[in-house]
Amino acid sequence: MNAMIFAAGLGSRLKPYTNNKPKALVALAGKTLLQRAIEKLKSLGVDRIVINVHHFADLIEDFLKENHNFGVDIRVSDERGELLETGGGLKKARELFIPNAPVLIYNVDILSSIDLNELIQQHESSNALVSMVMRNRESSRYLYFNQDKQLTGWKNCKTGETKVARPDMEKSEPLAFSGIHMVNPKLFDLIVEEGKFSIIDLYLRLAKTEKMIAFEDQSELWFDLGKPAQLLKAEGIVKNLE
């Protein structure tokens, strides 16, 4: 099984921590966010991890070398030339993955106690093209899923912008995306988008005809560490746990 850590972002929301380093190398309770993500995926037994880089890419490469890739088969997808967003980043990384194996995607700024084995089991048994980890929490943007847990649409609650993937969106449940998702390798042959593009927009396009489902995560701990206040809050919780 493959995994991909999205680590190429500019980390603008996390300033001043990212003034001289990438978001991936910001520390949380003594460990960088990247190390925490790698260790979680390593404990799962993934066969290969691909990490995309752009902002302070050299520092991430040096960090991996210094730590001997944490004993994992790690490949770097270089986006120094152009930041490709989530969809473009996944597409560019295609040739670095073990062929014909699923890909577990994990945002580097996510801290979660989710049991990823449960996600893998549901994904495999459902024959879904994509399984997205969703939570019932407050957010400014929601993805909508019907009674079959099928993706039906997206809405930005601040602007009112709506993207409908299926006609039953208005009867569907709004859930917040957790930054963790698993994709069947068949997805790559369905990507027609070029350059930089959002993976959510790709999923919404494919949801019209493909099985794109929610995995509802009710685990105790989940943090988006993209802002200083969230990082500080998580720091205290993690120190108590560890």
TrEMBL record:
Residues of the Nucleotidyl transferase domain: 3-235
Keywords: Nucleotidyltransferase, Transferase
Record's keyword annotation contains Nuclease: no
Organism domain of life: Bacteria
PANTHER family named among the record's database cross-references: N-ACETYLMURAMATE ALPHA-1-PHOSPHATE URIDYLYLTRANSFERASE, NUCLEOTIDYL TRANSFERASE
Name of the protein this chain belongs to: Nucleotidyltransferase family protein
Origin species: Marinifilum caeruleilacunae
